[in-house]
Amino acid sequence: MRRLRRHPILREMVGRADLTPGDLVAPLFVKAGLTAPEPIPSMPGQFQHTLDSLTREAGGLLESGVRAVILFGIPAVKDPAGSDASAEEGIAQQALRRLTGEFGADLLRIADLCLCEYTDHGHCGIVVGEQIDNDRTLERYRRIAVAQAAAGADLIAPSGMMDGQVGAIREALDGAGFADTPILAYAAKYASGLYAPFREAAESAPAFGDRRTYQMDAAAREEALREVALDVEEGADVIMVKPALPYLDILAAVRARFEVPTAAFQVSGEYAMIKAAAERGWIDERKVALETLTAIRRAGADLILTYFAGEVGRWQRG
């Protein structure tokens, strides 16, 4: 085997898990009411963007070879129903229209569909008492999906883990004339401690309780496969495992069983740990970031959502 590793070109030619900027999706945050981008303390190099800085960031990503972004909106005002999420002038819809007008088909625009960033209670659905009302939440998801598609989203990505969310969104999109808009389903999303930096960035920490009644337990395996099967049956075009690195076994099992494109999300905590260790000189940031992303690719991810997207593009372009 060593003979195939001696020459760097041959070593790359016989490799099976190439990682390119074109495989990556950059998560971006846009916040209403900002006059300048705000750094996110727990995620060095990441920002809450204005519409203008978001557009500049997307342009820089394209220059680095990254061709896709996923948008998370943070409204100026939150309420129990997360009204801004489906409003025509909601911050995410404004951002989608801006990116569509600026970049057209050169940039793939994915819209995260959830309510946690938009509600005053921080949960992913409509709350009655302190419980999620699944069916009322699906009605909100329908409206949000149509608003996002109308604003220019190329993919709708429901992340709330509500039962039946993919089927409800598919029906709503088809009925509103967006039958060609695909769905990227957060199909196997685990209740993880690695989401903490994201919750700071999106200002979406739950005001009470936690999300374990609708996100999956870390020890669950077969449940993940059932969740994916349901989403595929309901019409998901792409399915996703989240987080990525601690759940590579789940990612590999999903990729082996289902003949649909598969994504993985290297989440905020994964990013923050690498950044923090690198800042202390304990690891080589570039080597570790590329190693972990390659592992995710090797496990079966066709596309990877990662906060390292822009850096990978710049590293590989020299």
Secondary-structure topology with pairs:
Layout lengths: L7 H6 L10 E8 L6 E2 L7 E3 L1 H14 L3 E7 L16 H13 L4 E6 L13 E2 L2 E2 L1 H18 L3 E4 L6 H11 L8 E6 L6 H7 L19 H13 L3 E5 L5 H10 L4 E5 L1 H12 L5 H14 L4 E4 L2 H9 L1
Parallel strand pairs: 1-3, 1-4, 1-12, 4-5, 5-8, 9-10, 10-11, 11-12
Antiparallel strand pairs: 2-3, 6-7
Helix pairs in contact: 2-3, 2-11, 3-4, 4-5
Concise overview:
40% of the residues lie in helices and 17% in strands. The chain has helices at residues 8-13, 51-64, 91-103, 134-151, 165-175, 196-202, 222-234, 248-257, 268-279, 285-298, 309-317; strands at residues 24-31, 38-39, 47-49, 68-74, 108-113, 127-128, 131-132, 155-158, 184-189, 238-242, 262-266, 303-306.
What does this structure look like?
The protein has eleven helices and twelve strands. With 318 residues, the protein is of the alpha/beta class. The chain has a single domain, classed as TIM Barrel, CATH 3.20.20.70. Strands 1, 2, 3, 4, 5, 8, 9, 10, 11 and 12 form a ten-stranded mixed β-sheet that branches. It has a two-stranded antiparallel sheet with strand order 6-7. A hairpin with a 2-residue loop joins strand 6 and strand 7. Helix 2 runs parallel beside helix 11 and helix 4 packs across helix 5.
